Amino acid sequence: MTALAIMGTGLxxxxxxxxxxxxxxxxxxxxxxxxxxxxRDNGELRIxxxxxxxTPLATELVTELRNTPAxxxxxxxxxxxxxxxxxxxxxxxxxxxxGLDATLRSGGTVTIPVLGGAAASTQQxxxxxxxxxxxRHAARIEAARFAAAKRxxxxxxxxxxxxxxxxxxxxxxxxxxxxxxxxxxxPLGFSYSAPTMLVLFVFxxxxxxxxxxxxxxxLGIYERAGAAPVRPRDIVLGETLTYLAVALLQSLxxxxxxxxxxxxRWGDPLAAGALITVWALVGTGTGxxxxxxxxxxxxxxxxxxxxxxxxxxLGGAMWPLEIVPDAMRTIGHITPHAWAxxxxxxxxxxxxxxxxxxxQLAVLGAFxxxxxxxxxxxLGRRLTA
Amino acid sequence: xxxxLAIAAKDLRQRLRDRSAIVLGFLAPxxxxxxxxxxxxxxxxYHLDAAVVxxxxxxxxxxxxxxxxxxxxxxxxxxxxxxxxxxARAQVDSGQLGAAFVIPAGFTAAARGGSAVPxxxxxxxxxxxxxxxxxxxxxxxxxxxxxxxxxxxxxxxSGAPADTLPxxxxxxxxxxxxxxxxxxxxxxxxxxxxxxxxxxxxxxxALFAVGFTARGYFLEKETGTLDRxxxxxxxxxxxxxxxxxxxxxxxxxxxxxxxxxTTLVFGAYWGxxxxxxxxxxxxxxxxxxxxxxVISLSRSQRQAEGVAAMLTFGLxxxxxxxxxxxxxxxxxxxLALLTPNGWALRGFTDLATGAGASAAVLPVLAxxxxxxxxxxxxxxxxxxxxx
Lengths: 385, 387
Known about the structure:
The structure holds two protein chains of two kinds.
Chain A: H1 2-16, H2 18-38, E1 45-51, H3 56-66, E2 71-75, H4 78-86, E3 92-96, H5 100-105, E4 110-116, H6 120-151, H7 155-168, E5 174-178, H8 190-219, H9 221-227, H10 232-262, H11 269-293, H12 297-314, H13 326-332, H14 336-350, H15 358-384
Parallel strand pairs in A: 1-2, 1-3
Antiparallel strand pairs in A: 3-4
Helix pairs in contact in A: 1-10, 2-8, 2-10, 3-6, 6-7, 8-10, 8-11, 8-12, 8-14, 10-11, 10-15, 11-14, 11-15, 14-15
Chain B: H1 3-17, H2 19-39, E1 48-54, H3 59-68, E2 77-80, H4 85-94, E3 99-103, H5 107-111, E4 119-123, H6 128-157, H7 165-173, E5 179-185, H8 193-206, H9 208-223, H10 225-231, H11 238-266, H12 273-297, H13 301-319, H14 330-336, H15 340-352, H16 361-386
Parallel strand pairs in B: 1-2, 1-3
Antiparallel strand pairs in B: 3-4
Helix pairs in contact in B: 1-11, 2-8, 2-11, 6-7, 8-11, 8-15, 9-11, 9-12, 9-13, 11-12, 12-15, 12-16, 13-15, 15-16
């Protein structure tokens, strides 16, 4: 009962703190929005096209580029294309030269410049993909010219025939096949940003929340509580319940906002619930530990987020660990974050349930037990000292 | 010593005695930039580890393997050997290979006539683009074969007699495609991730100075220090100037340290020294303006802390300190230019990618404009409060 009263006070204190509410709800929501909007594409090559003329053959070439799966094509003016290329907003720029239509119709050869700006390998990838599209276009032109030379008739007539035949004639095709069925990554967009930001912010918020314990210590709240017939054990339990309630509340808000505003499907409810609960316990342990480790609320409020961000980066909450070198991935699993993100990947990308995330739950459980034990022993000692 | 300097020196001394100021201003940004540097150490570029499963043993399969080994693809593709198709599938599945090309039995014979059989590009669900790039390379190779087929088919469709087919095919094969691509360098430097996230993290952590100073101001107000200072024969504004100078000094030291450490240790490039320094100074001035605004918006220590935190996080989110804006959709990039840190990052990106020193002019002006707006607003608000 005493513990519950302490929790009630803690929660009331929090509800009155508008800054805390900003960090708990508004900031995560905005970040989910920004990151979700940024992490949308699966790494298609971004090609800028500068067209010097709006002629039929030039337009057809640009359409051919647009229909190439590996490319995302946007139109640009010559000057902005170069700037975008320099700023890495584009991977390559294709320049459709003036006179392309006339040259091709009159039997000439056209050279199409491809400007590369990024790393050499990205440039070669872009060039290979562009070359494929250009070759498909060129094949039709060549067929039309050849037929016109052999059989007479207009270039356009034969071009129509070639275009029709290109889809049907028994060409040597290239087909793609994936060898695995399920993804190791979180889905893109908001389904990526919502779970990772849940992991990041519940932890950071708990860490920064350590400030409340320091303030209670400084204001002598624990001494006053101790004057009443309240056992230190109850105070420790009360604080633990407060942090747990805050962490769970924040998680549920993020889950709710993610589902309602951003259409995130959180997968198996049991598995998601279990993961949220152990993660809230990890956060609780960390928050109370921070409350006994830092000396001033300012320290907790300032250093807490820095530690939280660093752990989030190491643990794959800021970017997927699949893109970092193997050693960094191994090191990342020192943080509980990596296990939590692994758990969410299993649930969201592969439809995993409790059995599939058993390892992650066990590891996170061990983190939670260790942190909570150390934190309550330290807090208990502070109270009785 | 002038009173402004004395006040600034006192504030700085006080700040540096607080260990969290050292952590936030100097250690944390370096540590986090280092983390990012290690994480993206491999560079964010494409590489294709590929293998060719040759079930054809014909001339064309050999030619395709040669295509993959061409010098134009040296940076992009590394060709590995595999025992058979099962081995290739296993290696693609485990991620050792990015893609594998399976050239089917009878490919050469079929491509020369008869019904064609497709080349298969094996890839993984998580690497769709790697697979598509692989497919594009294969299509580049098949394009020449297909061009001959299409040319002959079109000629036949327009009425060429069927018995001329061998002659047509031979003639078509001898011709070259009428469109070729040529590659050119845009003359820019590739942007390394540390060159973006170095300044981004430096600015993020330096922005904490806004909260520190604003909080310190109200602390001194509440403890009566400010009243005692204003009892001295000082012109109005001296206290504020001193405090601003302290913020300026702290943020400048923090950003400069960040620039030096990331450059010397992690190979970041912040741009030529002069324009880079101009960007750093302009960004620091914007922080001073922001501090004045926060102070004028707040009534207490706690409020100042809250307002500063919200402004700081709002700015870094919009400005692109946490997301690599070059990959973001254009509306987000436009929003970033409403923030001084967004302009600073644009300036640093431009300088780091080889734009001239003049690329810093517009960002510097924008940041100075932001400073002026903040300062003006702060003056307006405090005058109204004084009334």
